[in-house]
Amino acid sequence: MADDRIGVLDFGGQYAHLIAKRIRDLGVHSQIFSGDCRLEELQGLKGIILSGGPSSVSAGDAPEFDTRILTSGIPVLGLCYGHQLVAYHLGGEVSKGRTREYGKATVQVSDSVLLHGMDAVETVWMSHFDTVTRVPEGFTAVASTDICPIAAMEDPSRKIFSTQFHPEVTHTPHGMMALENFVAVTGALRTWNVESYIPLLFEKIKTDAKGRKVFMLVSGGVDSTVCFVLLNKALGKDRVYGLHVDHGLMRKDESALVTKALNAVGLDNFAVVDASERFLKALEGVLEPEIKRNIIGNLFLEVQKEEFVRLGLNADEWVLGQGTLYPDTIESGGTKHADKIKTHHNRIPEIMAMIEKGLVVEPVADLYKDEVRKVGVELGLPDELVWRHTFPGPGLAVQELCAATVVYPENKQKLESDIGAMVASAGLRPFILPVRSVGVQGDERTYRSVVALQGEADWKTLEDLATTITNTFPAVNRVVWLVKPAAVDLGSMTVKHGTLTRARLDLHREADALANQILRKHKLERELYEFPVVMIPVSFAGGESIALRPLYSENVMTVDFAKLPRAVVQEMADAIGALPGIDAVFYDVTNKPPATVQWE
After folding, report:
1. Is there a contact between 437 and 549 (Cβ–Cβ < 8 Å)?
2. What's the whole-model pTM score?
3. Which residues are part of the catalytic machinery?
């Protein structure tokens, strides 16, 4: 195995581990290294991939990079920031772009070693501002877009290749061809598979546990359930205990369904604690999303510690188990140069301190959702557990926006006017919502305005406009389409003061249950990766609004909004819009990037 690894250098972007996963998808062993590692650490690798990152290559705070890697003779593939790194250090030129390019783009492809087999015109995924404007000596530009003249370049004689676009994401439909071609250049053998990986997971659990028992926080989602089963199989039920905390932020009847599902697969070494009043009291009046996430993460730990005392357990004999996935780590800024997009509840400072002390076991922390599902299938878990939609640990807390005042960008009127001119030909009218949402643009966190589009348009038109709007106007990171009612009185639009109260959460639960009930009725649930139903305190008649956010994705690092049948969308909007207290229903038409999965 050691002689057939491909190394991925992590410069703090959102995609290093996704690249490593894609290499595993091709059956090749991969390994992550820090972007500032030395060439000596990379000896024996078949190839090296330089990943993306939020820095500018010429900036004073850019990550250190051992330029000897580019002259080592080991095949190199640079992606996004890695593309710019190759150009910058080998004598090319990297300039500040005139226009940001986030999302889908059309690229013109020339015949090349790296892009062999791709069409002359391809759809690719971009996420950049800086641009390579001159190739180094010996290189040839082999792809371009209208905005990016050197979208890919290569020097096959030195076995160095690079692309500005992301071939590793599903939004670049034929991107795996480029990775396949690079693997072929490296000569790496294809010996990796899930079946062979599970025994390694068992060994990792035993190593990390160091003879201690594991107290597992079980949400009932796919990740925590697979981890709970892995722990039981690796250590035995006598060394594992699970705790499901009902924090009052669950979906309708969620805790009862979790208990039933776990019991059905023979997992009875766990307890359920109703801590809903405690969580809601702590969250009373809290508006900021990051504060909400940290409160929830800390309370999880407090409840866990109290359960230790109640059971009379010796804390020195136990470590904490979590179903953390790699996207949780990277979005929380958990790698050396990564920008923090949002703090996941399993990455609060207290948890990070425990990880530093070796007090946390996370069996699937290097995997993505689709890989965890494959592990679940191999472990014999039933479909209803393996294929459940993901649901965040903080639950509805990050799907329910809290606000006290109207928040608009300074240039609201001009922004609406400029966007209006852009969408007028499609028969649409824009208006800016008086709230903000979290996004990820150029591998950096943004907290910016949301544009709503009013009028009739097909999904392709809405997607194209959402991409153009967020690329053109930096103040915007999300676009929604007004479904019901077809028109609203913009003069009455305001923010309804809203925090996490039981009454508000109960209304949210009903809206979420209705949307998912209709989804199951039409047998569409298996088509989606996730379906956040977001409550936003935007009021037109004294109530507030719902934004539907159904998603297609394999790994949550990139997502497409789901183009559900219009009749199904209308059925959802009619049902939810009939709930007392709901004034409007929107449909989120933004991909990731630039918008995150959750609004907070």
Report:
1. no
2. 0.70
3. 80, 166, 168
Closest CA to 292 of 337, 243, 256, 344: 344
**What CATH number does domain 412-588 carry, 2.40.40.10, 1.10.101.10, 3.30.300.10, 1.10.10.1590?**
3.30.300.10
CATH number, span 194-394: 3.40.50.620
Please state the residue numbers annotated as binding site: 219-225
Please give the helix or strand (H or E) that residue 472 lies within, else none. helix 459-472
**Rounded CA gap, 252 and 256, in Å?**
9
**Which one-letter amino acid corresponds to residue 112?**
S
User: Where does residue 121 rank: exposed (0-12), middle (13-18), buried (19+ CB within 10 A)?
Assistant: exposed
> Tokens representing 83?
């593309």
Q: What angle do CA 19, 34, 177 make, to 5 degrees?
A: 20
Cα separation, 191 vs 81, whole angstroms: 29
Per-residue pLDDT tens over the stretch 363-396: 888 888 888 889 999 998 888 788 888 777 788 9
Question: Each residue of 405-452: pLDDT tens digit?
Answer: 999 999 999 999 999 999 999 999 999 999 999 887 766 788 899 999
d(CA 435, CA 277): 27
d(CA 389, CA 157): 47
Instruction: Please report, in range form, the residues annotated as the binding site for ATP.
Output: 219-225
Q: Is the pLDDT of residue 339 over 80?
A: no
Could you tell me the CATH superfamily of domain 2-186? Class I glutamine amidotransferase (GATase) domain (3.40.50.880)
